Amino acid sequence: MISENIRRRINALRERTTARGFTEAEAMEAAAKVAELMREHGLHDSDLEMTQEAAAMNGSARSIRSKLWSTIARCTNTAALLSSSLDGRVVIYIGKEPGPEIAAYLHDVCDTAISNEIKRFKKGDFYRRRRSTTTRKQAVADFSAGLTVSLNRQLLLMFKSGMCATEQRYAEIERERRFPDTRTVKPTTYKSRFDHALYAGAAAADNVNISHGVRGRESQRLIGGAK
Fold first, then answer.
1. What are the distances in angstroms from CA 213 to CA 3, 28, 101, 116, 149?
2. Cα gap 127→139, rounded to integer Å
3. Where do the coiled-coil regions begin and end (predicted)?
4. Could you tell me if 121 and 143 are in contact, meaning their C-beta atoms sit under 8 angstroms apart?
5. Is 26 a member of any domain?
6. Is omega for the bond preceding 100 within 30 degrees of 0, making it cis?
7. Range of the domain at 186
8. What is the phi/psi pair of residue 175, to 5°?
9. Domain count, the chain
């Protein structure tokens, strides 16, 4: 992945054009230096235009909440990739700036909110009345499904005016270029059992504060119902 220092240096050189007041000789010298740096670092034009940001992933790649990550990618005109390493599992968002940064912010907000709302749900009477591990797991799954569907709707409604199928396709092409050995993972399908939990999850989405802006990744645990 290209370093920010190299990216800034190349982009600064690209700004040295005659249209910006530089002489033809200065512009040609800058263009030659750009070509040299790109060859030296093995860079493609899309490396300069596209960025990527990673967000920690809770749950499995096939979990109910994972359906949100593809929605976030659509809303921010990015492409999502699930990756695992010794440091844990992450979702990588790839696309034109500021898409990946916004996507990672939304991911953090939604993921934290889901975890916190599930904790709150488990303290309620409905969950506590479930007697077996199986029915308790099903209740949490239904609650999570309702919450995820509602958050999906919120995101699509909020970002629909800026969504662009062409830009997302470019992001997908760049994802395939950077990570050629990937495969599609489909979330596990399931049938709901407890309507009460499903509706409670949908209602819990009202507790989640989603905004367009990026407020800083460090403060994300204070957003979306976190304590």
1. 24, 38, 10, 22, 22
2. 7
3. none
4. yes
5. yes
6. no
7. 51-222
8. -60, -45
9. 2
Cα 101 to Cα 107: distance, rounded to the nearest angstrom: 10
> Is cis: bond before 187, omega within 30 of 0?
no
Instruction: Tell me the H-state helices in the chain.
Output: 4-14, 24-40, 45-49, 67-75, 99-122, 125-128, 133-159, 165-178, 195-204
Identity of residue 214: V
> Which of 17-26, 44-53, 161-170 is least confident?
44-53
Contact, 16 vs 26, CB < 8 A? yes
Report residue 74 as tokens. 């659509």
227 pLDDT exceeds 70? no
Q: How many CB atoms lie within 10 A of CB 205?
A: 21
Q: Which amino acid is present at 20?
A: R
Instruction: Report residue 59 as tokens.
Output: 């749950």
N residues, the chain: 227
Looking at the fold, whether 178 and 72 belong to one and the same domain comes out as yes
Interior angle at CA 110, CA 141 and CA 162, nearest 5: 125
The verdict on residue 227 lying in a domain is: no
